[in-house]
Specification:
Catalytic activity: 2 GTP = 3',3'-c-di-GMP + 2 diphosphate
Radius of gyration: 31 Å
Pfam families: GGDEF
Helix content: 55-70%
Strand order of the largest sheet: 2-3-1-4-5-6
Distance between the termini: 85 Å
Keywords: Membrane, Nucleotidyltransferase, Transferase, Transmembrane, Transmembrane helix
GO molecular function: diguanylate cyclase activity
Structural class: alpha+beta
CATH class of the largest domain: Mainly Alpha
InterPro entries: Diguanylate_Cyclase, GGDEF_dom, Nucleotide_cyclase, Rev_trsase/Diguanyl_cyclase
């Protein structure tokens, strides 16, 4: 059977391993990671202090060890709250850590009671576990698949809180309870193992969530235009093919708008690329006001955009296209005289995404040819400019 010292040293090693993995994530923009990294460092220190409690002075074995480990748990809670975009409550947690350390000192130097020290430390750790679980449950509306990391963390929080409460009850009511944290009895080793491994387990749970956040950030970066936030050209083909399959399955119409900004190049030439970037961002902002949540605005490159419009027939598509054209025309404070030409195509039975794009592009060319600032559509294979 492992000794209590070995249990704490293994827990310290697990904190160190988790620290190494988390440290590689520190620059990935996920909030809360830095707090969890700090918690693993404090967890290493706290477990080492517990492990060598007999070799250290009483002050380090009691007050410092409990204070450092309590700080580690508090920082884990702050990290979880940041992961789920909640305030960290750093000041409140700092007061709690100081209060626990002072209470441990009181029941060490003023009124020596192992039971009181055990109850204070265990109830504190149970409260931390409960607060982490509560934070996850409060944020359940923001959960995204996969759910198993959140369910894992909730299960661990429940077990940790229950384990600490059982420890307090057993310490208070059982005959011949342990009189030292390092007492090598079977029950004491089991309880200490569960408590010591709680911190690395919670840090590992945060690692699972952080990993998923990083994957989502990478997917977002790949599928969205970095400047405007619109869907990227790559995402356009994924979304377009998916919508064509859905339209074929449901029998509902689908339309595509290709939008090209008129007189955009002079903005860059006259005012610089920063002004051009501002025009593009403001343009996307304005266009999105006219679209539904099921529509997808994609930047195809430069000043050309596409709008995928599921469940939209030709009449609906032309109506929206004219609203977009009018809105752009009226936004002189943003676009400095920039207008838009729009080509409209609706899905036909034999269409692929490429053929749909080709027909919308032909309609767009016709709008440009007829003087710009127009909407053009096709009837069958015959292209006709739509009057504005």
């Amino acid at each position: 059977m492992l000794s209590t010292q070995q249990v704490f040293l293994i827990a310290s090693l697990l904190c160190f391993v988790t620290f190494l993995v988390l440290f590689s994530f520190r620059e990935n923009g996920v909030k809360g990671i830095r707090q969890i990294i700090l918690a693993t460092v404090l967890g290493m220190a706290g477990n080492i202090l517990y492990a060598y409690g007999r070799e250290l002075s009483p002050f380090f074995a009691y007050e410092v060890a409990n204070g450092v480990y309590a700080a580690a748990s508090a920082v884990v809670l702050a990290g979880y709250r940041r992961l789920f975009k909640r305030p960290g409550h750093t000041r409140i947690l700092a007061i709690a850590v100081v209060g626990l350390t002072v209470a441990i000192g009181y029941f060490h130097y003023v009124y020596d009671s192992f039971l009181a020290r055990t109850a204070i430390a265990s109830l504190y750790q149970a409260g931390i576990a409960g607060a982490i679980g509560y934070t996850l449950l409060r944020a359940r509306g923001e959960w995204r698949r996969p759910y198993y990391p959140k369910l894992f963390i909730l299960a661990m929080c429940s077990l940790i809180a229950a384990g600490h409460l059982v420890r307090v009850l057993r310490q208070a009511f059982v005959d011949n309870p342990p009189t030292s944290l390092l007492e090598p009895s079977g029950w004491n080793v089991f309880v200490l193992s569960a408590g010591a491994f709680a911190l690395p387990v919670l840090a590992f749970g945060a690692l699972l969530i952080a990993h998923r956040r990083i994957v989502l950030l990478a997917e977002h970066a790949a599928n969205h235009d970095y400047l405007t936030g619109a869907w990227s050209r790559r995402a356009f083909f994924d979304l377009g093919n998916r919508e064509i399959l859905r339209a074929a399955r449901t029998g509902k119409p689908m339309a595509l708008l290709l939008i090209d900004m008129d007189n955009f190049k002079p903005v860059n030439d006259t005012h610089g690329h920063a002004a051009g970037d501002r025009v593009l961002k403001e343009f996307v902002h304005e266009i999105l006001q006219e679209l539904r949540s099921i529509d997808s605005l994609c930047r195809m490159g430069g000043d050309e955009f596409a709008v995928l419009m599921p469940e939209t027939d030709q009449t609906g598509a032309v109506t929206v296209a004219n609203r977009l054209r009018t809105r752009a025309e009226r936004c002189h404070q943003f676009f400095s005289g920039v207008t838009v030409s729009i080509g409209v195509a609706t899905l036909q039975a034999e269409d692929t995404l490429n053929s749909l794009v080709t027909r919308a592009d032909s309609a767009l060319y016709k709008a440009k040819e007829k003087g710009r600032n127009q909407v053009s559509l096709e009837h069958g294979h015959l292209l006709q400019p739509y009057p504005t």
